Amino acid sequence: MARIIGGLGTSHVPAIGSAIARGAQQEAYWTPFFEGFAPVCDWLQATQPDIAVIFYNDHGLNFFLDKMPTFAVGAAPQYRNADEGWGLAPAAPFPGDPSLSWHVIDALVAREFDIATCQEMLVDHAVTIPMSLMWGEEAHRIRIVPIAINTVQHPLPSPARCFRLGQAVGRALADYKEDATIVVVGSGGLSHQLDGARAGFINKPFDLLCMQQLVEDPMALTEYSSLDLVELAGSQGVELLNWIAMRGALSGNVRKLHSNYHIPISNTATGVLLLENSGDGS
Amino acid sequence: MQKRAIAGTTIFDGEQARKGYALNRMCFSFNDAASRKAFLDDEDGYCVKFGLDRAQRDAVRSRNVAAMIAAGGNIYYLAKLAGIFDLSVQDIGAQQTGMSVADFKKMLADAGR
């Protein structure tokens, strides 16, 4: 049987990818971020998951405004990264797990989530950077199931809907008959805004509240609307939806193993939250 | 439906997405290195080829991010254009807020205190 051993929330700022490419992890600007990630790497080495299910948002690599799904589930045998236009060298491909993807797709549609399904899907920095942070060069041995949530074009799905999507994904994973050790990832945030007169907006108290509520009382976050999240966390801070979906997938006994919060990386408040999921809560 | 106003923020909704489609579509093309080169070889010609209107072409010509957003640009796509101009997100943040880049970076750092 498949087991979900934990969940990880992490930021995916492109500058993190540049820092990894340059080997800048020990520079003073970067140590507060990378040192805060080390316990996650240690935990992954100790627990050895073989699959990562990743809730993320595409930034205009795979999806354009011609066809913009609210939720899209990858069902590809392999996921390639590609040129995103601003200089990050493309990462090597990641293996998929089409059997698991279709199991998740079948379960989601049965539960009335009318998702898009993608047998070809480029994955952008919101997938490659968390993978690189988590496993370094070994990342390309981990099978992935990417699940894209639209955070680009409003109306966005609500936090409550994203949480329920995560719950449905979590149930599907727990029902999977094959042996698999799975970590669920929520990629994005935390508070930041790149556009407009409010560019540079960061909301530390709200971020810290969210990181606490994701552990103790995730339902509290489902009371917000997506526009509430834009107001409180910034236009791009709404990527928090990916963390909320991740948390929804954890149905067992959830315990915080590690967290880190640092301002700023690039224009962003960065967060890392590692949650252990033990027992069968379903 | 009454739209919700959030200070200093343009919600990229259906209205903006319709208005900005040509501009964003051009920016999406910049995932391809050959397209970036074609743009640099003839900026306005490239804008015309993608059907940008006058306001969008002027915004691109003047590197004015606020004007691009007013003309329907979405920052995730505009970032690809900013990359061609070698502008970082701090550069465009400073431009939109009327601050120096140093002051903008200081504001970001101060948010952590």
Report the CATH architecture of chain A: 3-Layer(aba) Sandwich
Q: Please identify the structural class of chain A as seen in this structure.
A: alpha/beta
What summary fits the major beta sheet of chain B? none
Overall pLDDT level of chain B: 96
Quick check: average pLDDT of chain A?
A: 97
Tell me what portion of residues of chain A adopts beta-strand conformation. 15-25%
Q: Secondary-structure element order of chain B, as H and E?
A: HHHHHHHHH
Query: What structural class do the secondary elements of chain B suggest?
Result: mainly alpha
CATH topology assignment of the domain at 14-86 in chain B: Protocatechuate 4,5-dioxygenase, Chain A
Figure out the total of helices of chain A: 10
**Weakly predicted, low-confidence segments of chain B:** none
Widest sheet, order of strands of chain A: 6-3-7-2-8-1-10-9
Query: What distance lies between the first and last C-alpha atoms of chain A, to the nearest angstrom?
Result: 14 Å
Give the total of beta strands of chain A: 10
Explained architecture:
The complex is a heterodimer of chains A (282) and B (113). By secondary structure, chain A is α/β, with parallel strands linked by helices. Chain A has one domain (2-253): LigB-like (Protocatechuate 4,5-dioxygenase, Chain B), CATH 3.40.830.10. Chain A is 34% helix and 23% strand. In chain A, helix 1 crosses helix 5 (125-135), helix 4 (98-110) packs across helix 6 and helix 6 (159-174) packs parallel to helix 10 (240-248). The radius of gyration of chain A is 17 Å and the shape is globular. The two termini of chain A are 14 Å apart. Chain B has nine helices and no strands. The radius of gyration of chain B is 15 Å and the shape is globular. The chains are: A alpha/beta (282), B mainly alpha (113).
